[in-house]
Amino acid sequence: MSDAPNPPTPSSQPAPASHPTNPLPPLPPGLALTSPLTIAGFQRLIFDQYYANDSKRGTPPTFMWFVEELGELSTALMNNAPGKSPTPEQRANLEEEFADVLAWLATLANINGVDLARALEKYTVKGVTGVKN
To answer: How far apart are CA 20 and CA 29, in angstroms?
Structure first.
């Protein structure tokens, strides 16, 4: 089962460009859909498409959706584990579940005012508190 964040809001009602809990700078039109996709671009895409509905749902129910997707990813990982012979459908499902988990993580970040690209600096920028070795 694949449950993506709520369907996009109608284009007549775009997501607010500057919401109090939106830490994301606006991206030039189309940037989020270019290749390679960046973490910031993906988070902005999820915000623009789903924030209106996601923010109404709130953190606890959204976290429950996220955990459900983690469970589906766990099943997909087991179906694709070393020594198994996954079908093409099982392999495609593994990729889909990784995407779903990332989308729901971006949703949680958006509704809680977290800029994932900035948060990830602890892994990429020397001197940032919490840098992993």
So the answer is: 22
Query: Rounded to whole angstroms, what are the CA distances from 26 to 29, 32, 69, 131?
Result: 9, 10, 28, 27
- Dig out the tokens for 123 from the structure: 């892994």
Instruction: Return the higher-pLDDT residue of 123 and 132.
Output: 123
Q: Which candidate, 31, 32, 33, 56, places its Cα nearest to that of 110?
A: 56
Helix ranges, 1-133 (H): 39-57, 59-79, 88-111, 116-119, 121-124
Which two tokens mark 133?
């070795």
pTM for the predicted model, two decimal places: 0.72
**Cα of 101 vs its chain's centroid, Å:** 6
**pLDDT for 17 beyond 80:** no
Higher-pLDDT residue of 26 and 38 is: 38
In angstroms and rounded to an integer, the radius of gyration of the C-alpha atoms of the chain is 16
**What is the reported pLDDT for 48?**
95
